[in-house]
Amino acid sequence: MKTVRLTAAQALVRYLANQMTPEGVPFIAGVWAIFGHGNVAGLGEALQGAKDSITTWRGQNEQSMAHAAIAYAKQLGRRRAMAVTSSIGPGALNMVTAAALAHVNRLPVLLLPGDVFANRGPDPVLQQVEDFNDGVMSANDCFRPVSRYFDRISRPEHLLTALPRAFRTMTDPADCGPVTLAFCQDTQAEAYDYPESFFAPKIWHIRRPQPDAFELESAIAAIKSAKNPVIVAGGGVHFSGATQTLLDFATKHQIPVVETQAGKSALPWDDTLNFGPVGVTGAASANTICEGADLVIGVGTRFQDFTTGSWALFKNPNRKILALNVQPYDSAKHDALPLVADAKIGLELISSALGDHRFAAPEAGLKADWFAKADAVTAPPKDGNSLPTDMQVIGAVQRTSRDNTVVMCAAGTMPGELHQLWKSKLPLSYHMEYGFSCMGYEIAGGMGIKMAEPERDVIVMVGDGSYMMMNSELVTACALGVKITVVITDNRGYGCINRLQMGTGGAEFNNLYAHTSHIHAPQIDFAAHARAMGADSRKVTTIAELEAALNSAREATRPTVIVIDTDPYPTPEAGGYWWDVAVPEVSDRNEVQQARARYEAALKERH
């Protein structure tokens, strides 16, 4: 057996560079790195030596670097991924939030935090977290509950088993998620005689699981016996590359489709069978269809509470759930009839068995009525002196966007209103991280999207609160020439949660700056801040100015940031659905007591 002597870090980097997609490009597109004493001598040396075969980028924060990597994988439908490395201690723990984000959203990312000395010679090393009762515990054990696969590399030869397991996880459609290889810093520098065959190029195919014959037969029977079925399209439709298959299926059998946050853009917004967004942030058209459905066909959805209206939405007492999902865990939720299979394969097999079976046409007026209401709230304001609403900002972005534009967001007011109001024409033109809804994902995520699909316009919608949490990768986007457009809606605080606070009977408290403890209320010049980081930026005051700025941004050569003040209170009156947010049983506030009464009444509607 021929061998090659390499350090463990050099071996890891060489292995990464030789793991390929069926299209002939590396599965790991590159490595994000912030070096510290826990990885600079080992992985840092290895990455520098391999810079011609694998790209390394330097970010500003470990969490946001991982966000960029995760957004990259999401935008490419999990067909490629990135790696992220940090030092030990605080640098490593900064990535735990991002790991949870990838875990919830079932997205691949390879996390390589440095770890303590395996030989324990210098214990406790700088930044080591000591457990008085466990000698092998380190800060990196925090990654265990938010990793699909976790391993600690404390011997160079551990890579021979750990790396194939890592790639198996990242390319498995059911188990896909974050992989953490906690890499002991002394082990990174240790040499070992690795088999040359270990570094031979390997192609990783993403399998398409076929359904069990009994489950398929049961699913077909359930659909044939239904009178008013509805399809709930989730993110798995995109991951499976099944958007056209879903459109063909719905058209052939005349079944209305509603879209989750992750599933939005599966069908063109104007297709006659796309009844729009579903659930808490849904359209009245979609929710009305779901209320009367006797069979809810989930395709690649986790049935999150925002999708189901906390399980109050599907009101038909005879309704059944059919869950077509590649992950058995998801297919068995809420006593669903499971169909464990790839979404594309499952839809094709069901359609073939159904033949010409078609259902009665859904009420087209529901869709027309909803979009008439949506168009009204996104239209430019008639009163030019009032603060714009977030809905009007969405309208401005929509009117100036192109079909290939990707609009993205993650937290705050915008996710709900974009879900309701944005009109997606092409698949993957709507990128919403609403599984973990992580504030701070937006700018780094927008950069990752643009790196994945540089030919598309990327518009990042972010509130002032989320921008303040994590904005530093704007510097990285400028440095790398990754041209994104960032629209900051400044409502001077946490407007979304302020409205939820009021909706549950609470007094306005500690959300908008006006209601916080302060001596001097913040007056932040976001345009100047963005300009200082290298972006083109401007502050606009009207919707007309916003549209002009967006048109100009398309011709820019660097990231553009546009800031507009918005009214923190208005929200769409039409659409939406109940969301289970527990209201205190005891309170001195009359408003809370009234909200509790409404809450208890709503609980009785849950099915």
Automatic annotation (TrEMBL):
GO terms for cellular component: acetolactate synthase complex. The keyword Cell membrane does not apply. Its EC number is 3.7.1.22. Pfam families: TPP_enzyme_C (PF02775), TPP_enzyme_M (PF00205), TPP_enzyme_N (PF02776). Residues 411-564 form the Thiamine pyrophosphate enzyme TPP-binding domain. Keywords: Hydrolase, Thiamine pyrophosphate. It is an enzyme of class 3 (hydrolase). InterPro entries: DHS-like_NAD/FAD-binding_dom (IPR029035), Myo_inos_IolD (IPR030817), THDP-binding (IPR029061), Thiamin_PyroP_enz_cen_dom (IPR012000), Thiamin_PyroP_enz_TPP-bd_dom (IPR012001), TPP-bd_CS (IPR000399), TPP_enz (IPR045229), TPP_enzyme_TPP-bd (IPR011766). GO terms for molecular function: 3D-(3,5/4)-trihydroxycyclohexane-1,2-dione hydrolase activity; acetolactate synthase activity; flavin adenine dinucleotide binding; magnesium ion binding; thiamine pyrophosphate binding. Residues 38-119 form the Thiamine pyrophosphate enzyme N-terminal TPP-binding domain. One of its GO terms (biological process) is inositol catabolic process. Residues 217-348 form the Thiamine pyrophosphate enzyme central domain. It comes from the Bacteria. NCBIfam families: myo_inos_iolD. Belongs to the TPP enzyme family. This is 3D-(3,5/4)-trihydroxycyclohexane-1,2-dione acylhydrolase (Decyclizing). The gene is iolD.
